[in-house]
């Protein structure tokens, strides 16, 4: 769990919030060409920082790349201390798990790659034993994501600063989603920032606010699910992933979500195989899609897409309410 | 009135949002009305910037060369503003007079609460087009999204394509003309027969916008006025 003290929005931010529409920014980019894959971060980062105008208090990005082979997994781990020393974690990882052999995504054995307070751990361990092991090594660390393809970076603070700190421009991959947050319904903390993840290789970002997240939570808690925060988006994320676990595909899960989620939402989701976008029945929260032969780009506003190469020839449209838009890899 | 897009002679003043701040560009557009009269101004590289050419009050011709962000040409008075691209939310919101033309599509709330003037959207308009319309005319070449004309009080909304669900909900005295398909109408909106006066007005509007449609093909939607007075016996209807 995150242990950072929950920081209420400062007075100035609260005032700004009163003056403007409650907002957040969402962005996503799916590469159809090798070129865009190689430059995913370089294309996606300006989309992300542009949308800081809609969400200046926190930011985050999930990127999917180079899936590791089963039984390997990739885990994103967050430390509260920006200057966290990862060397002892790395040593324990090598001592405890290097005997497994096998290949991860960049060499042999279990490994850890860190940048400031984020680390990506590659290890041949399922989620539950990994979480148990991590908790024993350092209980203050938080697991941000699990899967074979996904890695997640998110934190509280200026999105441009977050992008610079975690070198978003250098990321490569098949697709990614980002979020800039202007908190309206729960505290501003790293844990409350998006993307939210659940299960493996599933993440979700949200612009809007739900009015029944506690009903969803109570229902899901009865089924044994546990929550990291009191955030409404986390409820939506865990709800949809719970539906996926029950055996329906994402389209089926979203049809049920249209029925069970009450409130305003534009949701952008990604799995290792697809990027999916929906808006609520009233389409209260914006989204613009630009599609070319090379990419599919999604942004809350056109200005976040304006810099993209080929945008003048792109097929541009606004998604309709309660329609499911999916792009497969 | 001259047809929109008529040639404007003389050298255009070029404003470039890639080189100048929005405030600099808009302050030129807010210059002395007599000096701006009949001037031709080009705004380059709008790149989805919000609030481009808001608050104009001069009979100038402005061409925005690309996609505009939110509130483009909002509160317009007198100016003829053409957006050669798409427009974000609230294009020409609260317009008082003049003409705004969007050559592409418009996002939600196009022409919201506009009091006067003419808004033309060549493509589609999204949801809530003409919400709370207060006297302006809006002509959409394509279709409009759900809840268009919501609580529209005065003016005309012309839709050459289809109209989404909830059209004209809680309509006051604005009139809506739809050429294409009508889906479920909003509360208190009803389809009515076209009168000779409707045909005349519509022909005039279509002529001004250079959209070539036969006024006879349109349907009229107006308020049934059942919500004008409180009905204590039908409280559940409100």
Rg over alpha carbons of chain A: 19 Å
Number of domains of chain A: 2
CATH architecture of chain B: 3 Solenoid
Q: Could you say which structural class the secondary elements and strand pairing of chain A correspond to? A: alpha+beta
> So, the CATH homologous superfamily of the largest domain in chain A?
Aminohydrolase, N-terminal nucleophile (Ntn) domain
For the sheet with most strands of chain A, the description reads: 7 strands, antiparallel
Runs of chain B in which pLDDT lies below 50 for 5 or more consecutive residues are 1-9
Strand order of the largest sheet of chain B: 1-2-3-4-5-6-7-8-9-11-10
* Mass-distribution shape of chain A: globular
Average pLDDT metric of chain B? 94
- Biggest sheet details of chain B: 11 strands, mixed
Which structural category do the helix and sheet elements of chain B fall into?
alpha/beta
What name is given to the CATH topology of the largest domain in chain A?
A: Glutamine Phosphoribosylpyrophosphate, subunit 1, domain 1
**Mean pLDDT score of chain A:** 91
Give the terminus-to-terminus CA distance of chain B: 43 Å
